[in-house]
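Q: Here's a chain of 289 amino acids. Please give me its 3D structure as tokens.
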Amino acid sequence: MALAALLVAALGTGCGSAEPAKPAKGKPGQAAEAGGAAGALANSAERLKAAQQARIAAAKKWGLRKTPLLAPAAPKVKPEITTRDGFEVEDQDELPPVFTTVPTEEKVVFLTVDDGAEKDPEFIRMMQELKIPYTAFLSDYLVRENYPYFKQMQAAGVTLNNHTLNHRYMPGLSYEQQREEICGQQDTIQKQFGKRPALFRPPYGNYNQDTLRAAKSCGIKAVPLWNAEAFVNRMDYREWDRDLHPGDIILTHFRGREDWKGTMPDMIRHVMKTVTDKGYAVARLEDYL
């Protein structure tokens, strides 16, 4: 209906007298400005219509029963990110915040994908065509065999973040060992992909004070964990109500048939059915941080 209103406003009504309209009186150039504005509105409406039609076609192509909802515009003022209660370490105020949900009243969730084991080209193609944003957290021991795959992902607008070099259990390592895992991956991502990450996710979600101290020393600004986890055939939830909430971060992994009874596109179909049925859109995490 909003699109129709735009079109009507831009194109005017076809009803009325058959007598040709008389030129409106006014300053020179006003008519041209009005015509230009109407044309711009019409073009904008046509672009919106074409984009939505493309999304509908992509949803049908990839086997989604419903077209994913569009996320609202990124907030002009970023929400304040703080560490979730119960997730603090000593001197937490001096360290990167650890959180599972972004403070927002918008019905948006954030999709994050970890490690880099499966490198399915259909996954990249599907996410591009559906225009679903996501954030990757990479471990180099899995990624190094195919950096071009993740460069293609980056070229499509995906932010590549830090999940350590070797995906080790961080609290079992010394401070220096943890720093090597985190800073080493910072250096690798910068070398291979041209940008040093600001976000870090510890393997298994496990960390201690040394982990956060090391992360801060490596340039990490925030530590997003997750509030829900997606698989090819189910969703697991952290909260007691086993549901999604505005701003929840969803975790999934680069996995295929060797680990799941399905592919990454199968996983996305299940995730998007859940998210869309509940009235949520997937937004870009970095737009809120």
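Q: Can you summarize the key feature?
A: Residues 30-61 form the longest helix (32 residues).
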